[in-house]
Amino acid sequence: MLQKVMARTLGVGLGPYKHFVGSLHLYDHDREDAQQYLDEGVQATIPMPQMPRGDPWPSLQKLLDAEFRIRRGDAIDANTWGVSPYWADLIRLLQVFALKGNRSQKQALKAQMASSNYATYIDGPRVPTHRTRTKRNTPPSPRQLPLPL
To answer: 80-84: long-range contacts (C-beta < 8 A, 24 or more apart)?
Structure first.
């Protein structure tokens, strides 16, 4: 997303993305969770929606303002923020993350989404039926979801 923001800011197309990492760690106690994440099969097949053309900074500022209000506990309506459906969906996604366990409100926000690409983040990951979680009998925590930002 940072690459897209910079490309939109500069008015150029996206170029190749190269990422260099000096160190990545996978600890033995996290192997089962990492394997489950890979087995879900959704992280590589759901592209982020196309960012609207033009200067992204006014919309990014509105997104940050909305995030502040969501974290403060304010009730907001993404449709009233004067942003494109792309940015309104990101505001709704922040609202979903703030709801914790309120399924009915999450589904109401999901119904308003312009893109269906975020369904995984709203509904939670698919747990493969061929595997049984042995470590704990709870769904994966949000830290295991691929992040959209």
So the answer is: 83/59, 84/52, 84/59
